[in-house]
Amino acid sequence: MAFEEFEMTFKDETKRRGIAWPVENAKANIVIATGMEEHARRYDDFATFLNKHGYSVYALDHYGQGDNVENLEELGRWERSGFRKTVNYIDELITKLRVTCKPTIIMGHSMGSFIVQDYIQRYSNHVSKAIICGSCGKQSAVYFADRLARVFVTKRNYNKKSKFFSKLTFGGYNKSIKNPRTPFDWLSVNEDNVDRYIEDPKCGYGSTCGFYKEFFKGLNRLHTSRFLAKIRKNLPILLIAGEHDPVGKNGKGVLKLAKTYKKYSIENVETIIYPNMRHEILNETGKEVVYEDILKFVEN
């Protein structure tokens, strides 16, 4: 199926662009929150698969990403309170789609997975299911990263690229890979996928100090008891990740997140860790298995 470009104007008059893969008489709508330093168009293959099975797919590009950027110098720039605003914008899109009376499923990959973690704490009654891909549970380092960003990010450097925070966040991700071919081998065993990512000017460009400040602030609230307790208890949640994904601590962080949700009496939490896969399991060698597992979760 061909995709369509779309633009939404939100309640605060902000305009954001995204990509839609609609089908007639869809069984449900699936809204994807993409990862950091990538964009919605990268989900074309996965969305086309879902289209063939009767699902419409929508993905908003985040601040400073994808179709929201006309000048490449704007890549990686976020507004203040950008994490919370992004969650709210996704809910405005979902609220608009709910008018169709079709079930709506939210899915997030990588940074988008943490956005989905926040979303279901605020708006779990607005979606029928949630898919959290390439994520992690509580990390003590997030608190200290948040404190650092609050101190060192100022008006003067807010929109400047940050090598320091980039190294702090991603610096160790390639360490477990013997003789890495590129700095981005941690993304995927699939070398073609890594090469496409590197060759794409709207991927892997390095984010700004302001982005990291807002991102760490958003992450730092995710595992607060009073927010976790707000998640709808009967919300079906699927956690998926690669066995060798450093973002999820090679599966350990994903299992920790599942344990957290079960602690808060969420009734239906399913976890799948894929062997021989790294971070981008939707673009990985053997991705067909991942696609089918997602489809099974969506349809059951």
Shape: globular
Number of helices: 10
Please tally the β strands and state the result: 8
Major β-sheet annotation: 8 strands, mixed
Main sheet strand line-up:
1-2-4-3-5-6-7-8
Helix content range of the residues, please? 25-40%
Contiguous uncertain segments of 5+ residues = none
Percent of residues in β-strands: 15-25%
End-to-end separation in angstroms reads 24 Å
In words, what does this structure look like?
This protein has an eight-stranded mixed sheet with strand order 1-2-4-3-5-6-7-8, with helices on both faces. Helix 2 crosses helix 3 (111-123) and helix 4 (140-152) crosses helix 7. It is globular. By secondary structure, the chain is α/β, with parallel strands linked by helices. The protein has helices at 44-52, 82-98, 111-123, 140-152, 163-170, 191-199, 209-220, 225-228, 252-263, 287-299, and strands at 4-9, 15-21, 28-33, 55-60, 104-109, 129-133, 237-242, 269-274. The protein is 37% helix and 16% strand. The chain has ten helices and eight strands. Helix 1 (44-52) links the parallel strand 3 (28-33) and strand 4 (55-60).
Short description:
By secondary structure, the chain is an alpha/beta fold. It is built from ten helices and eight strands.
Which features characterize this protein?
300 residues, alpha/beta, 10 helices
Show the helix and strand layout:
Blueprint: E1 4-9, E2 15-21, E3 28-33, H1 44-52, E4 55-60, H2 82-98, E5 104-109, H3 111-123, E6 129-133, H4 140-152, H5 163-170, H6 191-199, H7 209-220, H8 225-228, E7 237-242, H9 252-263, E8 269-274, H10 287-299
Parallel strand pairs: 3-4, 3-5, 5-6, 6-7, 7-8
Antiparallel strand pairs: 1-2, 2-4
